[in-house]
Every structure is written in structure tokens, then in C-alpha cells.
Specification:
Largest sheet: none
Low-confidence stretches: none
Order of helices and strands: HHHHHHHHHH
Radius of gyration: 19 Å
Shape: globular
Oligomer: single chain
Number of domains: 1
Distance between the termini: 64 Å
Amino acid sequence: MELLEQLVTLFAENGYIAVFIALLLCGAGVPLPEDITLVAGGVIAGLGYANVHTMFGVGMAGVLVGDAGMFLLGHHFGARILKIRFVARVLTPERYAKVQEKFERYGNRLMFIARFLPGMRTAVFITAGSTHRVSFLRFFMLDGLAALISVPIWVYLGYFGADNHEWLAMWIHRGQNGLWLLGGAILIVVLVLWWRHKRRVACESESP
């Protein structure tokens, strides 16, 4: 909660622009938790320093611009991006190869699921761009749909818990676990649907 309090102070003093910049840094792989950043934005709205609905819009914009920046960076540089110093700290050659392997297995679904996997988002989005197998529009739509789930959860949680830090801390912990479970459930559903589709196609090709 110490980090949350520091962010609340920073955002209360500097407003929406500070929240937006912080979210850009989250998207760039800076070790600043996106969920805590969004909660802090909600808290200052709950304390009267901002409008919560505007904060939701700022949160969506910061998240999507940050993610899009990483995707376009990967798209422009390709595998050469691993030579950029700040990228190499987030995306090692080993992690790059591992994420590429996951793209082979899960395809575009990985981009939606990545939003619920802290520590993996930046690597996944950079790799998605560098593979050149995903259009920017498809990436933006999948990432946007996922953000419409996660961003309002954190912003409005901060808003409603602004005056009760113990309650807020409890629900931040539950929310973090809940998003992991949600991401896992979505992955299972997607895999089941994919398996059923593959099985149906195989059966149709075998039938006379």
C-alpha cells in the first residue's frame, strides 16, 4: 500500500496527465504495476480531485496508447528490437522465443489473455508486432476488449475504496487473484472452442 499512497499523492498534485504518463510507463515495461496505478487514479477521484468517469477514460487511453506503442515498436524493428537496451531488459532472447512459441500455439488469443498476465503484457505485445502476423487493427480490438474488463475494475475499485484503505487493500488482493482466475478461465474456454472447431473440421474433411 506504500506505493499506492505515493501514487495517490503524485496524481492528486498533478492530475490526469500524471496518470496517463504513468500508464505509458507501465506499458513500456517499467516495473510499475498497472493495476495499482489505475487504483490510485480511482482513489483521487474518490477523494474529489478528479471525475471518476473521466479517470476511466484517461485510464483506457493510457493503457491502449502504451500497449499500441509497444506493438508498433515491435512491428517497426522486428527481431532487431532485441538490440535496443531498454527492450532487452524486458524481452530477453529466451523470453522472445518463448512468447513466439506461445503465438504458434494460441495465435491471436494470446493478445487478449496477456492483459490479465502481469509481467507478460509488454513482452507479448512487442512480440505480436515483430511477428508481422497480426494486423494493428486486430491487435487494438483484442487489447481494447480486454482493457474494457480490467481498467474499469481497478479505477472504480479505487473510487469506492478511497476512504477505506483496509477494505481497498483486501479487494486489490482479491481483484489480482480474480483477474488471474478470469484469465485462466478465458484461456480454458478458448482452448475448448478451438479444439472443438479443429475436431469438427477434421470430421468434415474425413466424411465422403
